[in-house]
Each structure stands twice: as structure tokens, then as C-alpha cells.
């Protein structure tokens, strides 16, 4: 039987193997910088910053970001790459941050998909609570429609189309990973104003025959009560 493994342990191993070391940032970084500039946000929280392929260009683009990640290895590698940011990195999850602290900008790139549906939704809601009034949340997350690879079993499927798999092979073997549907994210962000409306981003895999993976990308603004902007 495949039992769930700890995401922190899996990611520590991945980063030790060199994951993302030479990878360019995702193009969504440019959308985040543009949205932050439009709203005047200059500081924020990056949940699941990894070893920095996206955090570094965001910081170089003028944002003062607190980088948070459950992987000690990711934080160590990022601190080595950018000693100037070492004091702005934390190992842990959202619960490890001071209660009630919020930011004008919260960034989460490929992080909310960890765990099953209930755990993934809990992470989304915990991140939403970290956004200051009128602040932005920038999300890139696994989408249904992905050709899920490598071997896995589907462990849950909801009427809105969202589903969770448990990998039975590959680096994420034993890990539960959630794939969100459009309707599911619409529901989770029903009270938020879209700044960059939800859009799919498809990437063809390099290995022939393994298909594509799709990510949802979106930026929402926390509505201030009485101020239904956009
Ligand atoms: C797919 S990687 C993406 C890393 C980075 N955002 C990037 O795009 O390069 C997911 C990252 O999220 C981290 N992670 C997973 N669950 C987390 C949680 N609950 N809180 C903080 N980080 C988490 C993992 O350790 C890993 O570094």
C-alpha cells in the first residue's frame, strides 16, 4: 500500500537532486510584477518559495518578499544563492507565521496542490487570511485537464471536477497531489475581485508521449467591505 509521504521530505530530496537549480522563472512572474506596480504593493509573502527561481526575479523587480517554505533544503539553497535575502527566509508553513499578520501581496506558485482536496482548500483559505484588505493574492496551481504522469491512482474526485491523485512512482511517490477545476477555484475565490482572471497555462512535457500539464494562473484582490472595486 502507498501511504502518504511528508511533502517536506519529498521536496528536500528533490532540491538535493538539483530540482529547479537551472530553471528560468515562470512567465507569470511578469504578471505579478505588473499587478503589484499598478496597485503600489512593494512587499509581500511568497508561500512555497522553493529555492528561488521565481522569488529572485520578483525581488530583483522591486518586491521585498518574505520567503516561506517547508523544505529546509530549499531555504538553505536559496540563502546560499542570495545571502542578501537570508534574513527574509523562513522554514515552515503558514501556521508558523505570527497570528494575524497580513501582507499587501501574497504569492503562491505551485504550492496549494499539496495534499488532498480538504488539505488543499485549507491552505488556500489560510493564505487568503494573510492578505491585507485591498491586497492581492497571486496563484498558480495544478489544473484538471493535465495528463497526470507518472503512475498514480486517483484517490478522490468531486462533482465540480477537482480530483486528487496519489503517485505510485517517481519523485512524488506516496504523495497526495490535488488538481483544481475552474468551478472549484471560482467557489474558493467567490468573494474576491479578479485582477487577472483565471486562465490555463499548458506546458508540453519534454519526454515524448507524456503529454502536457496545465496550471491555472490568476490574481485576485481582497475586497474591502463597502468597496466592491472591479
Ligand atoms: C512545486 S514547488 C514550487 C516552488 C516555487 N514556488 C517555484 O515555483 O519554484 C512547491 C514548493 O512548495 C513547498 N511547500 C509545499 N507545501 C507547503 C506548505 N504547506 N507551506 C509552505 N511551503 C510548502 C515545497 O517544499 C516546495 O518547495
From TrEMBL:
Annotated InterPro entries: Methyltransf_12 (IPR013217), SAM-dependent_MTases_sf (IPR029063)
Gene3D superfamilies: Vaccinia Virus protein VP39
Coiled coil residues, start to end: none
Every Methyltransferase type domain range: 46-136
The entry's keywords: Methyltransferase, Transferase
Tagged with keyword Methyltransferase: yes
BP-aspect Gene Ontology terms: methylation
GO molecular function, one term: methyltransferase activity
A Pfam entry, by short name: Methyltransf_12
Protein name: Methyltransferase domain-containing protein
Amino acid at each position: 500500500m502507498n501511504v502518504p509521504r511528508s511533502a517536506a521530505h519529498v521536496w528536500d530530496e528533490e532540491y538535493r537532486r538539483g530540482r529547479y537549480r537551472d530553471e528560468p522563472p515562470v512567465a507569470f512572474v511578469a504578471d505579478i510584477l505588473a499587478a503589484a506596480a499598478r496597485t503600489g504593493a512593494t512587499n509581500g509573502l511568497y508561500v512555497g518559495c522553493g529555492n528561488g527561481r521565481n522569488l529572485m526575479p520578483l525581488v530583483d523587480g522591486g518586491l521585498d518578499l518574505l520567503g516561506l517554505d517547508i523544505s529546509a533544503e530549499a531555504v538553505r539553497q536559496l540563502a546560499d544563492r542570495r545571502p542578501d535575502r537570508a534574513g527574509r527566509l523562513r522554514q515552515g508553513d503558514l501556521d508558523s507565521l505570527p497570528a494575524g499578520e497580513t501582507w499587501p501581496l501574497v504569492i503562491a506558485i505551485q504550492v496549494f496542490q499539496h495534499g488532498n482536496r480538504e488539505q488543499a482548500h485549507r491552505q488556500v483559505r489560510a493564505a487568503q487570511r494573510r492578505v491585507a484588505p485591498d491586497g492581492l493574492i497571486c496563484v498558480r496551481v495544478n489544473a484538471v485537464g493535465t495528463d497526470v504522469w507518472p503512475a498514480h491512482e486517483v484517490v478522490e474526485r468531486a462533482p465540480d471536477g477537482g480530483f486528487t491523485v496519489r503517485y505510485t512512482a517517481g519523485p512524488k511517490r506516496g504523495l497526495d497531489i490535488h488538481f483544481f477545476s475552474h468551478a472549484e477555484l471560482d467557489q474558493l475565490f467567490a468573494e474576491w475581485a479578479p485582477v487577472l482572471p483565471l486562465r490555463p497555462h499548458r506546458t508540453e512535457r519534454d519526454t515524448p508521449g507524456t503529454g502536457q500539464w496545465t496550471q491555472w494562473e490568476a490574481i485576485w484582490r481582497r475586497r474591502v467591505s463597502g468597496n466592491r472595486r472591479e
